[in-house]
Amino acid sequence: MTNFMYFCNKRQSDFKILMYLQGHQVDNWSLLFTSMVSKTDITTEKTARRIAALWKSMTDTEYQELLNHLCIRQYKPKETIYKDFESPVDVMCLMQGKVKVLKDGIGGRKQIVRVITPIEFFSYRAAFAHEDYKTSAISFESCTIALIPVELVRKFMAENFEICRYFIQRLAKELGISDDRTVNLTQKHIRGRLAETLLFLKNRYGIKEDGSTNIFLCREDLANLSNMTTSNAIRTLSAFANEGLIAGGWTENKNSQREDLEGNIPNRIGCSFRRWAFFNF
Fold it and tell me: How far is CA 94 from CA 98, 143, 163, in A?
């Protein structure tokens, strides 16, 4: 049963088909279905309440529709969530874990254009624009994602202004972040780009109790976020560490709280840091 991680509120006949496709041989279908649905209802209901809290004023009818159509799916680390050129079927909300959104560049090089944090919607731009995906999404780590049918979300937006307002605000904020990132990644030199990326990750994911950032990236992902080659990212990180601006290693990671991050770095790497930063790389 470990591979059967796609939970939906479906009829028992649909459940049998899904189990058959997964290659499971089950004798007592009724008992298994009842057991699975009871666990699913708890997870689905909790997820539906969290989404309803984001959308604020949902009617009882809308909430029940959401509960009936909501699906929860688990993804393994580095698993593809959707691919470019696919047609969007669901609007997704990351409930747990971390996700990166990538776009293919020249020569097959991938650029990470966004990182997704828990309780955040994604994959809806293409759906609202009636287009295929222009990006792909891959999990950084084990993830739990809620899937809501696109047509249901469109129906909610047509009938409930608050839900429509929510997505308008999300798109507006993402556009502002995208504008800032575009300028930073195209006009700053290597040190400035990498420093901005480190602060960007710290602000997105926060820090742990020990002061380290709450995400661990491989060097290739860090380079893709900073619009540089992996070798340049490695050299720049080493330079930061040698200068005492950050502390860490490739396996065991520690962090330093240094006044240089606010005071001296802006003149040297072209960044404007408003707060002390804690880095983990």
Answer: 8, 7, 17
